Amino acid sequence: MSDIRKGLAGVVVDTTAISKVVPETNSLTYRGYAVQELAASCSFDEVAYLLWYGELPNPGQLEMFSQRERALRRADRSLLSLVAKLPENCHPMDVVRTVISYLGCEDPQEDDSARKANLAKALRMTAVLPTVIAADLRRRRGLDPIAPHSHLGFAENFLNMCFGSIPDARIVKAFEVSLILYAEHSFNASTFAARVVTSTQSDMYSAVTAAIGALKGPLHGGANEAVMHDMLAIGEPADAAEWLRRKLAAKDKVMGFGHRVYKNGDSRVPTMKAALDEIAALTGGVKWLAMYDAMEKTMADATGIKPNLDFPTGPAYYLMGFDIEMFTPIFVMSRITGWTAHIIEQAGSNALIRPLSEYSGVPQRALRS
Ligand SMILES: CC(=O)SCCNC(=O)CCNC(=O)[C@H](O)C(C)(C)COP(=O)(O)OP(=O)(O)OC[C@H]1O[C@@H](n2cnc3c(N)ncnc32)[C@H](O)[C@@H]1OP(=O)(O)O
Ligand SMILES: O=C([O-])CC(=O)C(=O)O
């Protein structure tokens, strides 16, 4: 029997220079910078630049980069009509997945995986995806899309395209913090899926499409939606403890808790919890803070398992006015920067990813005796 590590738990499969997760010290760095410091001091554009180019931009570089991003925000008519044609009862993650696939069909350079071409694709996808997600949110509410504005920052512009106005600057900042925290997390399942596809020398759009499929699942990015569904099902903070006890007794997983790498708490949660506190104070959402505390305490007492990043983002996005099914697409809007950085890294130092398996079926037998 070989040494099988189910789910590749604990297996180091390659090196990466993009981010480092150290569960022992509860630290996460992007290109050497602590994520908490990036969230406090940087814009999402600066973090995207850092992930792709390895260094923070100087003011001139940032200006040029932001101008290029702003110029690529507009979704052309064919893209918007594709979104409009997709069934409204499909999950918005299916829309996002389909749109990325379509962008690949449209791109005459689709199969050019040189670094320069891939950087251009990464920027185009990152710039246009918010426009598509906002248009999808609005069509599900029976509203026309709002065109992007090139004078607005990345987060402000997205919120304006969704809601038709820009919220309080403190809410915009809290939202931008969530995007920065979501941007990158080493070899998580969706990033690994992207790297597997890239390792066959396939194109960036195919790799991102695979990553979106992996992120949709509730054990990964889909947990932020599940958290809010659970909080609404519980209803009142006073009922959280009993609800959780029943869930645990049935051996069900509680969404938004636990992590494959962090066993003593997710390094991003304190920063996101502070952002949630800010949003709740400004939107009158203190009930959901009480729910958060009740669930966190009951889980800690019963299992010792701590929340992951999807736990605070669920109520934060809900209080900002997003429909629950838009939560994971927002995660995509941010993580696409990390995925594409990994795709570029994988393509630049490639080895086909193809592990082994141990056969567990019937022994070899004759077809006819
Ligand atoms: C951005 C992100 O993707 S963060 C992750 C988002 N996903 C979730 O929130 C889904 C809920 N959490 C989980 O399912 C898990 O914690 C995972 C999948 C994230 C990580 O799981 P793994 O590292 O594979 O740990 P595993 O599932 O083996 O759990 C170890 C033990 O803790 C328990 N456990 C782990 N997470 C939870 C949870 N959320 N609720 C209840 N029990 C849990 C398991 O039941 C298991 O118990 P056992 O040893 O008695 O069987
Ligand atoms: O690292 C993981 O396994 C999941 C996660 O937290 C992320 O992708 O942000």
UniProtKB/TrEMBL annotation:
GO biological process: carbohydrate metabolic process; tricarboxylic acid cycle
Superkingdom, natural source: Bacteria
Keywords attached to this entry: Acyltransferase, Transferase, Tricarboxylic acid cycle
Location of the active site: H259, D310
An annotated GO cellular component: cytosol
Pfam families: Citrate_synt
GO terms assigned for molecular function: citrate synthase activity
InterPro entries cross-referenced by the UniProt entry: 2-MeCitrate/Citrate_synth_II, Citrate_synth-like_lrg_a-sub, Citrate_synth-like_sm_a-sub, Citrate_synthase, Citrate_synthase_AS, Citrate_synthase_bac-typ, Citrate_synthase_sf
PROSITE patterns (alphabetical): CITRATE_SYNTHASE
Protein's pathway: Carbohydrate metabolism; tricarboxylic acid cycle; isocitrate from oxaloacetate: step 1/2
Signal sequence annotation: none
PANTHER family linked: CITRATE SYNTHASE, CITRATE SYNTHASE, PEROXISOMAL
Protein family according to the UniProt entry: Belongs to the citrate synthase family.
Annotated protein name in UniProt: Citrate synthase
Organism: Antrihabitans stalagmiti
Upper classification of the organism: Bacteria, Bacillati, Actinomycetota, Actinomycetes, Mycobacteriales
